[in-house]
Amino acid sequence: MRRAERARHIAQRLQELYPDPPIPLAHRDAYTLLIAVLLSAQCTDARVNQVTPALFARAPNPRAMVELGEAGVLELIHSCGLAPGKARAIVALSRILLTEHGGQVPESFAALERLPGVGHKTAGVVMSQAFGQPAFPVDTHIHRLAQRWGLSDGSSVARTERDLKKLFPQQSWRDLHLQMIYYGREHCSARGCDGTRCEICRTCYPRRKTAPQVRKA
Hints:
Number of domains: 2
Number of helices: 11
CATH architecture of the largest domain: Orthogonal Bundle
CATH superfamily of the largest domain: Hypothetical protein, domain 2
Helix content: 55-70%
Radius of gyration: 18 Å
Order of helices and strands: HHHHHHHHHHH
Largest sheet: none
Shape: elongated
């Protein structure tokens, strides 16, 4: 099965499994999605979803977050990994949103990536899921699956993103990003599948006997 053929099969199967994939992070708008995605670094979505209701009840917008302050934010997010740095970034980016963007999350990759604590992946999630702009954010699940399925060589996250964008039509990126995450968690996890066990791995590589080497993101 050639790469393009594998890509078509994978997209079709993921669409069958997850026809309307929900965003796994609870949020109300672009701002709360931005904060939730920032919190998800080095932290599970489940933990973030336990923390954010209290945080967003106290600070649902940038002004309230700045007023809450670093100590107040840290108290509410302390169970998330890297909490002190995240608290600083959340308050700092909220202040920038107020002073430079009228309290609104900017609909621009460049502007988002200039915010404290916001990298390319976080910006991509917000652009795709909040604003419907074409983006294909690559997390650890997607980076792993792209290698196991022979869609990219895994030499870098940037390379994986470029390869996936070439293989799949732009209109599918938003859902496919989420579909791959769900499949990676439920069927082709780092420990649950070694590239020879799950349905898609077996279908794409029926003769594969040993686990392929996978580079970490």
